[in-house]
Amino acid sequence: MNYKVIKSEIRYKGKVFDHQVDEIQYDSGNIGIREVAVHPGGAVVIPIKDDGKIILVKQFRYPLQKTLIELPAGKLDKNEDPLNCAVRELEEETGYKAKEFIKLGAIYTAPGYCTEILHIYKAVGLIAGNHNREEGEQGMELLEFSTEEIKQMILSGKINDAKTIAGIFYLLNS
C-alpha cells in the first residue's frame, strides 16, 4: 500500500449499507478521499431441481426501476454465516428447502467502492414448500430454465444480473 488513512468516518448508517468516507495520504504527500459502501455481504443460491432445471426469480429492482431475472439471493444478517443466509433466502424467496448446499465460490460485487462479498452456493435435493417473502418481494415470480436456456438468456442480454452470470459461470465450470 502506498498510503495511510488519516481519518475514517461513517457518515451514514443505513439499513442495507453504511457510507464511510476516508481521508488518505499517499506516500507522495498528496491527499485523497475514498468513499466506501460498507455492506455485510450476502449469499446467492443456484437451486437445481431433480430434472436439472434451475429456479430463477423475476423481481422488480427499485434502484434500476426494472424487473430482472436472477438467482435467489439475500443480504447477510450481522455476523451471519453465509450458508445460513443461503438456506434462509432459498426458502424465503422460492419456498424450497434443499438437502444439500455446496459452496461454489464468492465474488466481490463492486470492489472499487463497496465491501460486499457474495457467497455462491449450489442447492440440490430440493423439497417444495411455502415461501416467506418480505414485503418488497411480494410480486416475485419463480421461473425454471435449463442451464443452456440460461446461458442463451445471458448471451442475449435477457439476464444481465452480475451475481446470476457469475453463479452460472461457477456452476458450468465446477
From TrEMBL:
Keyword Hydrolase: yes
InterPro entries in UniProt: NUDIX_hydrolase-like_dom_sf, NUDIX_hydrolase_CS, NUDIX_hydrolase_dom
Keywords from the UniProt entry: Hydrolase
Domain of life: Bacteria
Coiled coil: none
GO BP, sorted A to Z: nucleoside phosphate metabolic process; ribose phosphate metabolic process
Residue intervals of the Nudix hydrolase domain: 37-167
GO cellular component terms listed in the entry, alphabetical order: cytosol
UniProt GO molecular function: hydrolase activity
Family named by the database record: Belongs to the Nudix hydrolase family. NudK subfamily.
Protein name per its UniProtKB record: GDP-mannose pyrophosphatase
